[in-house]
Write a structure and sequence with these properties.
The chain is an alpha+beta fold and 164 residues long. The chain has a single domain, classed as Aminopeptidase (3-Layer(aba) Sandwich). The chain is built from five helices and seven strands; from the N terminus they run βαααβββαβαββ. It has a seven-stranded mixed β-sheet. The longest helix has 15 residues. It is globular. The chain binds coenzyme A. Coenzyme A binds next to strand 4, helix 4 and helix 5. The site of coenzyme A has 19 residues, from strand 4, helix 4 and helix 5.
C-alpha cells in the first residue's frame, strides 16, 4: 500500500474512485452520485490544481482504493478541514484510512496549522468511531443539517483535533 498526493494527471482515477465510493456508501457523504457524476474534467482538474488543499490517495497494486481531501476555507482560515474520506469496501480494516488521516495531518502541519477539523454525518457510526479513535473530539452538532433524497433530514458533527 502506498499513500501519496494526487496530481493533476490522476484526475480520472480520482473521479472514478470517488464515484464508486458514493455508489457504495451514499449515506456516508454529503455529495451525491447524481450530482458528482455529471461534473466535467475541468471540475476535477481544478480541484487537484488548487493550492489551498490536497487530495491524498491510497494505492494498492496500481489501483486507487482509498482517498481523502483536506482544504483550507475562508470560514476558518487557520484550521483546514478534512473531507471525502473513503476506502473501497474490500480494502477496509487494513489501516488505509488511518494513513490517509495521518498524511493529511502532516500536510496541515507543514502549512502551519495547529488544529484540523472534519465534518461527519452523525448517523455514520463507523466514521464517527473512526474519527474518535484517531483523536478527533466533538466541537459542534448541527441538527437537521442535510436533506436526504428521501426527504428526511440528518445531523452533522464538526470534530476537531489538536496537532501540537
Ligand atoms: C470510515 C472508513 C474510511 C474507515 O476505513 P478503514 O480503512 O477501514 O479504516 P482503518 O482500517 O484505517 O481503521 C483504522 C482504525 O479504525 C478502526 N475502525 C475502523 N472501522 C471501525 C468501526 N466500524 N468501528 C470501530 N473502529 C473502527 C480500526 O479498528 C482501526 O483501529 P486500530 O488502528 O486500533 O486497529 C471506511 O469504513 C469507509 O470508507 N466508509 C465509507 C465512507 C465513509 O464513511 N467515509 C467517512 C466520511 S466522514
Amino acid at each position: 500500500m502506498e499513500i501519496r498526493e494526487a496530481i493533476v494527471k490522476d484526475w480520472e482515477k480520482v473521479r472514478d474512485l470517488y464515484l464508486t465510493l458514493l455508489r457504495e456508501d451514499p449515506q456516508a457523504f454529503v455529495d451525491t452520485y447524481e450530482e458528482m457524476s455529471v461534473k466535467d474534467g475541468d471540475y476535477w482538474i481544478n480541484r487537484l490544481e488548487k493550492k489551498d488543499g490536497k487530495t491524498f490517495i491510497a494505492i494498492d497494486d496500481n489501483n486507487f482504493v482509498g482517498m481523502g481531501r483536506i482544504n483550507f476555507y475562508d470560514k476558518f482560515p487557520e484550521i483546514p478541514v478534512m473531507h471525502k474520506l473513503g476506502v473501497l469496501s474490500e480494502y477496509r480494516g487494513k489501516g488505509m484510512a488511518k494513513e490517509l488521516v495521518k498524511a493529511r495531518e502532516e500536510w496541515a502541519k507543514s502549512r502551519g496549522a495547529e488544529k484540523v477539523r472534519l465534518y461527519v454525518i452523525a448517523d455514520n457510526v463507523t466514521a464517527v468511531k473512526f474519527a474518535e479513535k484517531n483523536g478527533y473530539k466533538l466541537l459542534e452538532k448541527f441538527e437537521n443539517d442535510i436533506k436526504r433524497d428521501n426527504g428526511k433530514y440528518t445531523d452533522t458533527l464538526l470534530m476537531e483535533k489538536d496537532l501540537i
